[in-house]
Write a structure and sequence with these properties.
Helix Hairpins, 3 domains, 0% strand, mainly alpha
C-alpha cells in the first residue's frame, strides 16, 4: 500500500522463512536452558555471575570468532558463534531477572533497527531510499545512526558539559583507548614532559598496587583493580612517549612467550609433562628456550652463560 510503513510482518513474509522456522525451536530451547541454569536449583557458577564478571568472556569469545574466520575453520566458527550467542542469552537473562528487558526486547529492537537503517530495502512512506551501491548504503546507515544518537541524547537530556575526549569511542579496545586519551590530553599540555617522569610514575603505581595487595581484605578487590588499571594506563602512555605501539609490543611479547613455551613442552615431552616438574626445572627449561632465542645470560663464573640458572622466567 502506498504511503504505508514497513512492518515486521511484511519482513517475515518476504524473508527466508525456512531458516527462521528451523532456528525457532533451537533458539527457544537455548533461552529456556539459560533460564534454567540461572534459576533456583540451577548451576552455582551461572547463578553467581554478573554483568561485570561475564564481560571478559564476551571479549574472549569475540576474538575466538575472529580467529576461526581468519583460519577459515568453518566447523569451528559454528561452535564459536554459538559461544558468542551464549553471551547474548546470558546478558538478556540477567537483564530479565533485574527487570531491565528480556531477549524478546533485544530481538525486537534489532529487527526494528535493521528495517529502519535499510530504507533502500524497506520503504518509508511508500518510498525507497536511493542507494545504488555499498558506499551509498553506508552513508545512509551512518546518517540514520547519527540522527538516532542525537534523538537519544535529547531524550536523556544529559547535563554534562562536552569534553575534548568525547569523540574517542569507549567501545574501542581499552589499550587503544588509553593511548588516544593520553595523546589527546597531551595536546593541551597535560602530559609527562620526559620519559623519566613516566618511569617515576610507574614506580609510584607499582607501590600503590603493592599497598592495596598488602590489605588482605578481598572485599577491597575493586581498589586492587583500580591500581592495576592505573599501572597499565601508565605503561601504555610510556609506550606512546617511546613512539611504540602498545598493541604491537604486547603481541610481540605474546608471540615470544608462545614460542618459548612450545620449546619447553618439546623438551619436557608435552604440556602435561611440565606439570610434573619442579619450579627450578621449569626455570631451567625456560632459560634454555631463551638461550635458543639468542638471549645473553649472566656468566656462571667461567665466562659462559648458565641457562640452567633460574632467573624468574623473565621475558
Amino acid at each position: 500500500m502506498a504511503g504505508a510503513e514497513t512492518t515486521q510482518a511484511d519482513v517475515v513474509k518476504s524473508g527466508p522463512t525456512d531458516v527462521a522456522a528451523r532456528a525457532a525451536n533451537p533458539l527457544a530451547e537455548s533461552i529456556s536452558i539459560m533460564a534454567r541454569l540461572r534459576g533456583l536449583g540451577g548451576c552455582p557458577w551461572d547463578r553467581e555471575q554478573t554483568f561485570d564478571s561475564i564481560k571478559r568472556h564476551t571479549l574472549e569469545e569475540t576474538y575466538e570468532v575472529f580467529d576461526a574466520i581468519e583460519r577459515r575453520a568453518w566447523p569451528e566458527l559454528k561452535d564459536e558463534l554459538g559461544d558468542l550467542l551464549l553471551q547474548v542469552l546470558f546478558y538478556a537473562q540477567m537483564a530479565s531477572e533485574a527487570g531491565y528487558f528480556d531477549i524478546g526486547d533485544v530481538a525486537a529492537n534489532l529487527n526494528a533497527k535493521l528495517v529502519r537503517r535499510h530504507p533502500h530495502i524497506f520503504p518509508v512512506a511508500g518510498k525507497l531510499a536511493d542507494a545504488t551501491d555499498a558506499d551509498a548504503v553506508l552513508r545512509n546507515w551512518e546518517q540514520i545512526k547519527r540522527t538516532e544518537k542525537r534523538e537519544g541524547a535529547a531524550l536523556l537530556a544529559e547535563a554534562a558539559a562536552p569534553s575534548g575526549l568525547d569523540d574517542i569511542p569507549r567501545t574501542m579496545p581499552a589499550m587503544l583507548e588509553a593511548g588516544k586519551i593520553g595523546s589527546r590530553a597531551a595536546k593541551v599540555g597535560f602530559d609527562w614532559p620526559t620519559v623519566d617522569g613516566l618511569f617515576e610514575k610507574l614506580n609510584e603505581e607499582i607501590a600503590e598496587l603493592k599497598a592495596e595487595l598488602a590489605n588482605h581484605d578481598r572485599a577491597e578487590l575493586d581498589k586492587v583493580q583500580d591500581e592495576f588499571g592505573d599501572l597499565l594506563f601508565t605503561a601504555i602512555n610510556l609506550g606512546r612517549h617511546l613512539k611504540l605501539d602498545a598493541e604491537s609490543a604486547l603481541r610481540s611479547a605474546n608471540g615470544k612467550f608462545r614460542n618459548r613455551f612450545r620449546a619447553m613442552e618439546a623438551a619436557a615431552g608435552g604440556y602435561d609433562a611440565l606439570a610434573a616438574l619442579t619450579p627450578t626445572a621449569l626455570d631451567a627449561l625456560w632459560n634454555r628456550a631463551k638461550c635458543a632465542d639468542g638471549v645473553v645470560f649472566k656468566s656462571d663464573g667461567d665466562g659462559y652463560p648458565d641457562p640452567d640458572e633460574p632467573d624468574g622466567r623473565e621475558l
